[in-house]
Structure formats: C-alpha cells, structure tokens
Design brief:
CATH class of the largest domain: Mainly Alpha
Strand content: 15-25%
CATH superfamily of the largest domain: Dehydroquinate synthase-like - alpha domain
Largest sheet: 7 strands, mixed
Structural class: alpha/beta
Number of helices: 14
Bound molecules: nicotinamide-adenine-dinucleotide
Distance between the termini: 42 Å
C-alpha cells in the first residue's frame, strides 16, 4: 500500500487507499455485491462472472432520463437495500453511481474505484453527484459519499493522452487553489503524461490531500470549496460548444486560462503574480499535447460559447459569477455585471485562451 487517509464528512468518515494492483483484489464472488462500471471494463469483469451494470462514459449516461435504466438494471440483478455496489470508472460513472446508490431503495452502501486520472486526483472524494437535465449540465445532484475509495494507480496506464492531460489540469487546479506551497510542490513532481508510478502516487496524494482541506472545511460547497470551480464556468461553455468532444478536464484547463485572461481584461489585474504565470505556462504546455485540440478549438463558435457561458447555473440573475485571481495571485469569487464591456471581455478571454494552443 502506498497511502491511506480518512475524509471527514457529516454522514460518516470514509477511507481513501492508494494501492497498486488493488483492482484485482476488489472483486469477490459475494452475492450481495453488484458492480456499476464504465463499459471499458465490461469484458474483463464479465469474464470473471460478476454481476455488472455497464455504463458508457458519456454525458447522455449522466442525463436524468438515463437514471431509471440504471436503477432497473440494479433491480434486475435482485439488489435489495442490504446489497452493496462497487463502482469502477471515471467521473461519468461516479456521478451516475453516487446518484443511483443514494436513491436506490433510499440508499445502498457503495465503494468506488476511480479509473481515470481525473477521478483519482479529484472527483473520487467530496461525495458529489451531478446529473444533466435537458441542455443543462450538472443541474441536479446530491452528496452521498462512498463507504470507501480505493485507488489503483496502475489503471492510469491504459488512459489516452487526452485523459491524462485532463487529470493533470484538475490536479494543477486543486493544488493552485490550495495555495502557492501546494502548487510548487505539484510542479516539483514534474507532472507530465508519462510520469513514473512513484511520482504519480505522490501527485495523487498531494492533490487529494489538497482537496481534502476544501471538502472538510466546506463539505456542502458554500464558501471555500466554491473556489474549486476555478476554470469550470469557462470550461463548461467550451465543453458544451464543442458538443462534449473535448474532455472535461481539458476544457477546465482551457477554462482556467480564459479566467486568468479575464482577470486582466476586466478585473483590473495588470500583471499576474509569478505562480500564476507558472500555472499558465504549465497548463498551456499540457494542452498542446492533446492531439487535434487546436483544430477542434478553432471550430468553436464564440456566440455559442457565450450562450453556454450565460446558462451556467453558478451565475445570478443580474451578475456573472467568476472565479479568478486577485493581484496577489489568490483565487477569489467575483460577481460582475452582465454589461456590454464585460461580455466583450468574456469573448476576448475565450479567444486568447484558445490562441495559446497555437
Ligand atoms: N462528481 C464530481 O465530483 C465530479 C468532479 C469532476 C468531474 N465530474 C464529471 O466527470 C465527468 C468526466 O469524467 P472523467 O474525466 O473522469 O472521464 P469519463 O468518465 O468521461 O471517461 C473518459 C474516457 O476514459 C475511458 N476510461 C475510463 N477509465 C479508463 C481506463 N482505466 N483506461 C482507459 N480508458 C478509460 C472512458 O471509457 C471514457 O472513454 C464529467 O461529466 C464531469 O462533469 C464529476
């Protein structure tokens, strides 16, 4: 085992373990357990004769309409309120599992093994589910932490470069949000798409311990934890305008660049602090490794970007809510008017962020 720590939560504390090759040890033939998995894992799990509900990792799978299909599959596998679920997959499967486990017969126990880097560094802790309704991404959801999170870093070995970049962008965001020390510790690990296992494990632990600080101090997303939305409002607009062809974490990476440019165009930040410049350079370097990203980004329509930006649930009726930096390079939550100047600055921020890919 590499590391183990506990996350405090109002429902119950839960344990996080980072252990290589724990995937193989996770499954027993216990009749009570049903597996909700990313369909990437269906062949291997079916070959073990395990009862699975396979879920394609897509935004459609995260729609409210899709939940009844998953719940009916759970029922077909004769799950009772005493059954347990093991979920294996990235953020998509996690959102579905969190939601369905929280409501199936008023709640069943579940354990989670994240299989994407984004799941390992970020989403596996915090207990949130986010489900899409109509065109609105992540409009409904709840908090229902798993009993246990088990991370097998070896699963990252089969991930595409885009998925590795997505995870690194989120880890950079979390450590940056936690403060300069954590962010410079992250950079000292030389984060890149082909990290060796030792460095990857240290990065997982650093990112999760940084996020732990936010979720323990503000479990229900009312104050400090909101700062982890850095890059998300711009990022969700990029995901939506790109019809979800850009991975979530990659869109968040672009979204952070746009939010930082917005600080210069509209929030009166004339010069970014050194660690902010380091973040910009690191994220740009990561994003440039995603094949075809620049071509996809060039096709994005700015009116559509702004329309998706407008529909983000974090805004107020009369003001945009944007997380960006102040002059010291610390994250802050800004409420800014929906006037012509700010809309012009938003468009410029999207443009300049996308230009960094060239
Ligand atoms: N609930 C939360 O706290 C939270 C936090 C962040 C993101 N999210 C959500 O998570 C989603 C994105 O999740 P994600 O980035 O983890 O990716 P994902 O779940 O969308 O999966 C991305 C791709 O990787 C594949 N994959 C998964 N594991 C693999 C493995 N080990 N090897 C090879 N391929 C593998 C999947 O089949 C899919 O093709 C978004 O919908 C986002 O909104 C939720």
């Amino acid at each position: 085992m590499y590391a183990s720590f506990e996350i405090a939560s109002s429902s119950k504390p839960y344990k996080v373990t980072i252990e290589n090759n724990s995937f193989g040890k996770l499954f027993t033939s216990d009749k009570k357990t049903v597996i909700l998995c990313d369909d990437f894992f269906s062949p291997v799990l079916l070959s073990k004769g395990l009862p699975i509900v396979a879920i394609p990792a897509s935004e459609e799978s995260k729609s409210l309409e899709s939940m009844s299909g998953v719940i009916l599959e759970m029922r077909k596998l004769a799950m009772t309120r005493n059954s347990e679920v093991i979920a294996v997959g990235g953020g998509c499967v996690q959102d579905v599992a969190t939601f369905c486990c929280s409501i199936y017969m008023r709640g069943v126990v579940w354990r989670y093994m994240p299989s994407t880097l984004l799941g390992m560094v970020d989403s596996c802790i915090g207990g949130k589910s986010a489900i899409n309704v109509g065109q609105y991404k992540n409009l409904v959801g709840n908090f229902y932490p798993p009993q246990e999170v088990i991370i097998d870093p070896a699963l990252a070995g089969s991930l595409a470069v885009e998925q590795r970049v997505a995870g690194l962008c989120e880890a950079a965001k979390i450590t940056f949000a936690h403060g300069q020390d954590a962010f410079y510790q992250y950079l000292a690990l030389s984060p890149r798409v082909d990290m060796d296992e030792g460095a990857l494990v240290r990065l997982l632990e650093l990112s999760l311990r940084s996020k732990k600080w936010f979720i323990e101090i503000d479990e229900f997303d009312k104050r400090e934890r909101l700062l982890l939305n850095f890059g998300h409002t711009f990022g969700h607009a990029i995901e939506g305008a790109g019809r979800f062809s850009i991975a979530h974490g990659v869109a968040v990476g672009l979204g952070m660049l746009a939010a930082l440019d917005f600080a210069q165009y509209a929030l009166g930040i004339t010069k970014h602090a050194a660690h902010v410049v380091a973040l910009q350079e690191h994220i740009s370097h990561l994003l440039c490794q995603v094949e075809g990203l620049s071509a996809t980004a060039n096709k994005l329509n700015f009116d559509e970007l702004l329309a998706h930006f407008d529909s983000d649930k974090k805004h107020e009726a009369a003001a945009y809510t944007i997380i960006s930096v102040n002059s010291r390079g610390e994250l802050e939550r800004y409420q800014i008017g929906k006037d012509t100047n700010n809309r012009r600055a938003l468009r410029r921020s999207f443009e300049s962020a996308l230009l960094r890919l060239e």
